[in-house]
Design goal:
about 325 residues, 15 helices, 8 strands, tRNA processing, FMN, NAD, flavin adenine dinucleotide binding
Length: about 325
């Protein structure tokens, strides 16, 4: 594929604060990445992909990661247990992305049991080796996404070890792996890492509106802000002005149909987006729909919404 990728490092130099769509299991796929770019989102991530599966299976590569010329800049995020798997996967992906990220933050029990995600927060030397080997194999930026430790000195030291082998930037989720998403994010943790770092730092956690993003950026002085749950509910979260939800709902439907998104992902994205639009009674009905055609019929009957899928550029 012959295309020039925008480097995330260029974005950090050009913009005071870079607006970023987080890696989200199932949800941050190509149609959604294209959607949020229309609303002042500067950088997007793929969902977390298992490095060993990606490198060993062509079928997995085709299913887990699709892209096209509009998907730029984009970072592919991997979960890995060892440096070889990560470097091998990164080398395969490098021609098609703007950067590669190592997930050190997933706090789901299955991930920790498999030795990936936030399990790695207790193994800084392993992460250091993974970053070093990957940097030696690819010529694109390599980043890590981490969580805070209970003892914030460990978090600062973790970041410094990654910096010592050339990590290009770091995203900090301001909760420990044992904290629930309902607990407030620790902005002091993010601020402390930023004050101690020599590479760009991105803040992640509790960004549900443009005002949240602006407040967190101002308080922590970070170089970028990353939204996950907030941008699922409002893909126009980073837009400069308020956007009618129907604007992004219709655009998402067109993109999803054009790219052939499966029903599960299609339905769940709309469930998130409709949270502020539908009444509780209607939402219960909508959540029981079991096919794309049923969803389209519902939207036509209730709202007069007719959608014609656009012609799409082929995915790669």
């Amino acid at each position: 594929m012959d295309r020039k990728f925008k480097s995330p490092l260029e974005l950090f130099e050009e913009k005071k604060v870079v607006n970023i769509c987080a890696p989200m299991v199932r949800y941050s796929k190509l149609p959604f990445r294209e959607l949020v770019r229309e609303y002042n989102c500067d950088l997007t991530y793929t969902p977390m992909i298992l490095a060993d599966v990606f490198k060993n299976s062509n079928y997995a590569r085709e299913c887990d990661f699709t892209t096209n010329e509009k998907d730029n800049p984009v970072i592919i995020q991997f979960a890995a247990t060892n440096a070889t798997d990560l470097a091998d996967a990164a080398e395969l992906a490098a021609p098609f992305v703007s950067g590669v990220d190592l997930n050190c933050g997933c706090a789901q029990k299955w991930a920790i049991n498999e030795g990936i995600g936030s399990y790695l927060m207790e193994h800084p030397e392993l992460v250091r080796d993974m970053v070093r080997q990957t940097k030696n194999r690819v010529n694109i930026p390599c980043s890590i996404k981490i969580r805070a430790h209970k003892d914030l000195r460990q978090t600062v030291e973790f970041a410094k070890r990654a910096e010592s082998v050339g990590v290009d930037f770091i995203t900090v989720h301001g909760r420990t792996r044992r904290q629930k998403s309902s607990e407030p994010v620790n902005l002091e943790a993010i601020k402390l890492v930023k004050e101690s770092a020599s590479v760009p730092i991105v803040a992640n956690g509790d960004i549900f509106s443009r005002e949240d993003a602006e407040h967190i950026a101002e308080y922590t002085k970070v170089d970028g802000v990353m939204a996950a749950r907030g941008i699922l509910h409002n893909p126009a979260l980073f837009a400069h002005e308020e956007v009618d939800p129907w604007d992004y709902i219709k655009k998402y439907i067109e993109l999803a149909l054009g790219y052939g998104t499966n029903f599960f992902i299609f339905h769940h994205h709309l469930m998130f987006m409709f949270e502020g639009v539908m009444s509780n009674a209607e939402r219960k009905t909508f959540n029981t729909l079991s096919s794309i055609s049923a969803v389209l019929d519902h939207l036509r009957d209730y709202y007069g919404l007719e959608v014609t899928p656009p012609s799409r550029s082929p995915s790669l």
